[in-house]
Specification:
It is built from eight helices and five strands. By secondary structure, the chain is α+β, with helices and mostly antiparallel strands. It folds into two domains: 239 residues, 2-Layer Sandwich (Beta Polymerase, domain 2), CATH 3.30.460.20; 54 residues, Methane Monooxygenase Hydroxylase, Chain G, domain 1 (Up-down Bundle), CATH 1.20.58. Helix 5 runs parallel beside helix 7, helix 6 runs antiparallel to helix 7 and helix 7 runs antiparallel to helix 8. A five-stranded mixed β-sheet has the order 1-5-4-3-2, with helices on one face.
Length: 307
């Protein structure tokens, strides 16, 4: 910690990345050294923040959601990332400690590739925000692939509980991603208005590029949202059709057996004097009558197109 803070006395931009928010003492020490408002520190320690940007006199405060593509269990992981941008420093605070999407930026810094070392802290902030937004495309690609698998199962009428659960999980993840992406456009628009001197004119074209990417992500999220809703409706329609087919079969069986039950019920009564009971051909005649009724009903149902 002391070594990281000591780097600030050197010329250039200081980037300090904190992984995990359990050590509140470390966060408070950074806040004291960089003169960060205690209310702002409270916001970055609260992981339920909505993505936003706050313009202060001496620094900018940003909150975003960083998503990681689905793991082996199919779950999309996400965490809150807070950024504090100053004139010559950038502080980033990550909610988790299981890796992030900033490895590409770190590699560019170590290898000295690109212009990131020649620009200010605002360009470094842009590079990190751009990485987070570009990572949304990877997450959306994974969601799209999983949605196609669910669609294939639905069209094959494989109405299994696991498939239904996967569809609801995709819908929930899409909603979470939508809530995280929509405010990003407002954030970048705020940075582009030029209200803060910390964002230089040379960085604004790059931020416009990120804004275009964010709009594309929003459009993709809306498309997947509509597709998920359509698949849900198709699933409910298929379930309803299958239920109708089952009810149709049961209704046909009931229709056939109702008159047969009526005939059997008549001759099953325990009256002493029933003329037909004394006739030798009465038993086969009843069988012939029931067979005739069955054939007649089947013929009627087939001609009406109900069978």
């Amino acid at each position: 910690m002391d070594e990281a803070i000591g780097l600030r006395v050197r010329p250039g931009v200081t980037w300090i990345n904190v992984e995990g928010l359990e050590d509140t003492g470390l966060v408070e020490r950074l806040g004291d050294h960089f003169r960060i408002d205690p209310l702002l520190l409270e916001d970055l320690l609260h992981v339920g923040q909505r993505p936003k940007v706050e313009l202060r006199n001496e620094y900018l405060f940003l909150v975003l959601r960083m998503f990681t593509p689905a793991d082996g269990n199919g779950e999309v992981r996400y965490e809150q990332v807070s950024m504090v941008l100053g004139g010559d420093f950038l502080l980033t605070f990550q909610e988790g400690q299981e890796g992030d999407a900033f490895d590409a930026v770190r590699r560019r810094l170590r290898e000295g590739r690109g212009i990131i070392r020649d620009r200010g802290a605002d360009y470094l902030m842009y590079a990190l925000v751009d990485t987070i937004v570009d990572n949304y495309f990877l997450v959306l690609a994974g969601l799209s692939d999983r949605l196609e698998e669910v669609e294939d199962h639905i069209l094959e009428s494989a109405q299994t509980p696991a498939m239904v659960s996967a569809l609801h999980r995709l819908r929930r993840e899409n909603i979470i991603l939508r809530k995280a992406v929509w405010p990003v456009r407002e954030m970048i628009a705020t940075l582009l208005r030029g209200d803060s001197p910390l964002v230089h004119e040379a960085t604004r074209p790059y931020l416009r590029d990120v804004q275009d990417h964010a709009m594309e992500v929003v459009e993709t999220v809306e498309t997947l949202r509509d597709l998920t809703q359509s698949l849900t409706e198709v699933h409910l329609s298929l379930v309803s059709n299958r239920m109708n087919e089952v009810i149709k079969v049961l209704t046909i069986i009931s229709t056939i057996f109702v008159p047969l039950t009526f005939i059997v019920g008549i001759y099953g009564m325990n009256f002493r004097y029933m003329p037909e009971l004394a006739l030798p051909w009465a038993y086969p005649a009843v069988w012939v009558l029931m067979a005739f009724v069955t054939v007649a009903l089947l013929t009627f149902l087939r001609r009406r197109g109900w069978l």
